Structure formats: structure tokens, C-alpha cells
Amino acid sequence: FSNAEEILLEIVFEDFELKKLGLESEVDLHVYEVPVEYQTVQSLVPSLWKQYHPQLVVHVGVSGMATTVTLEKCGRNHGYKGLDNSSFCPDSQCCIVGGPDCIDSVIDMEIVCKRVTASGLGVAVSVSKDAGRYLCDFTYYTSLYLSHGRSAFIHVPPLGKPYSGEDLGRALKAIIQEMLDLLDQAEEKIHCQQHFH
């Protein structure tokens, strides 16, 4: 594992040609597919954080209702009543017993959305406050809880409705780069404040 300046762990539900596109050379990208199962999420997501200690985790999920590439602002702890692919649902109907109701990402999704839209990618990007109370939301909250907000979730439409894998790959690459830039700026600001005091 190289001593990269930035380490990005990408958890995806479908491969949108990100491996082929690549990111900046100083970014280590790790791609995982997460099964649609509550119990797997509860064990896999913490183990990935422990293994990589990434600067950022970006989750990508396909939503049949999405018509744009959608940046999720927050994850929610309660309301998980839908059965997963193993016909299982948590008895508590929540992600983390005793955890806060809602956790926001440290990344300002509105800024990311504006910047990517202004870059003229040809892919519509929007922001959402509700990731859906199913495995996507469950995964996002779990990751936000573990990372103290250093996570993001992007919902994408199904392939071809209307965007191709290449379109979505380009959009994801641009979005992730903006997220990393925002994180870098925030860390530089904190570093300067510490140094000043």
C-alpha cells in the first residue's frame, strides 16, 4: 500500500468504468461490491475502514427512481423495515442502536453539485436529503458513523436510463475529484488554524 497523499476507498454496487478511467495518480482507489444484505454491511464496512483508514469512502448505488446523478447529504439511523436479499431485517429497524437519528457528510454536496454542473459534463447532478431507508441508506449511515462524516453516497440511474456507463464513469470521476479537493481545502484550513494558534 503506497504512501499516497490521498487514499480513496470506493464502494460500488456496479462498476461504472471507474477502474478504466482512473483518478489522479496520487489517489489509491479501491473498489468493492457490497451485497444487498444488512448483516454483510454491518461486518464489511467496518472491516474496510479498519483495513484502509481511507481519507474518504464514496458509496455508489443504483436507484430505479433516479433520473439524475444524485448526491446524498445524510444518512438516517431509523426506519429500516424492508427485507434484504436474504429476507432479513434488523429487529431494531436501525443501523446503530443509540446512534444519532441523522448524520451529515462533512462534504458540502451543494458545492460539489454546483461545481460539477458548471463544468458542463452533460450529466445532470442533483442533491438529496433522503437516501431511501433501505440498504443504500443503511450503508451510508454506517459509514458516516464510523468515519465521523468522511463518507459520501451517490445514487445513479440504471444504465441507459438515460446515461451510459461511460457517461456515469465521467460524472463519478468529476464528482469524486471535487469531493477530494473540498476535503483538502478543509484540512489545509484546519492545519493553518492549528499552526496559527
UniProtKB/TrEMBL annotation:
Protein name: Pyroglutamyl-peptidase I
Record's catalysed reaction(s): Release of an N-terminal pyroglutamyl group from a polypeptide, the second amino acid generally not being Pro
Record's function text: Removes 5-oxoproline from various penultimate amino acid residues except L-proline.
Chief place where the protein resides: cytoplasm
Assigned protein family: Belongs to the peptidase C15 family.
Gene: PGPEP1
Residues at the active site: 72, 136
Protein EC: 3.4.19.3
Any one GO CC term of the record: cytosol
InterPro entries: Peptidase_C15, Peptidase_C15-like, Peptidase_C15-like_sf, PGPEP1_Cys_AS, PGPEP1_Glu_AS
Pfam hit, one: Peptidase_C15
